[in-house]
Amino acid sequence: AQSVTQLDSQVPVFEEAPVELRCNYSSSVSVYLFWYVQYPNQGLQLLLKYLSGSTLVESINGFEAEFNKSQTSFHLRKPSVHISDTAEYFCAVGTSGTYKYIFGTGTRLKVLA
Amino acid sequence: DVKVTQSSRYLVKRTGEKVFLECVQDMDHENMFWYRQDPGLGLRLIYFSYDVKMKEKGDIPEGYSVSREKKERFSLILESASTNQTSMYLCASSFRRQGQPQHFGDGTRLSIL
Question: What's the pLDDT band for A107 if we cut at 50, 70, 90?
Fold first, then answer.
C-alpha cells in the first residue's frame, strides 16, 4: 500500500535562511508527486507537481522539489524564506490506476524575523 | 481559474442532528472528493465520486454519506452528528486523468456540540 511520511511536524527557520521540508513515500509503481501549501483558514493550494521527465520541479515563488526514485523522496527546498512563507505544507502521492491521492500529515513552517 | 466553493466556512450543530455540507466546482471536473483534516493526522479521505451518481468509500466513511446528483455538486451528509465529527472538512475536485492535481475549497470548520 502507498504511504507518505513527512518527517518533521514543525520547522522553525529564520527569515532569509534556507529550508528543506522532507517527504518520503512508499510505492512499488510509478508515482505522481505533489506539494501543497495551506495558509491559515484556507484550503490547500498546489505548489508544484512531478509527473514525469525532469526530476527537479520549480514553483513560481522560489520553491523547488527533487524527485529521487532510489531514495523514494520528494523533498521541498527554498534557498531563502520570507515571513509570508509561514504556512503548513503537505506532500501527496498518487499512482497510476487510481485518482485518489495519499497525503502526508503536514509540516508547519514558521519563519522567524 | 478553478473555483471550488464550500457553502459554509463555519458551522455549529448539535449532537444527533443531520448535517449537510455542500461543495460546488465550476471547472467541469469529473472527480470530487471529501476529506477531513485533523491536527497531526493530515487529510483523510471520506468519500470520492468519479461521476454523477457514482461514489466510492475512502478511508473513513463511517458515519458519513454523500450525494452527487449533478456533475458540479458534491454533498457530504452526517447522518447523526457526533462530537467526534468536529473537524475541518475540505472538498476537492480534479479531472479524471492520471496525474491531475486536486483543487481545494477553503474548507468548512464544523463544530458538533
Answer: very high
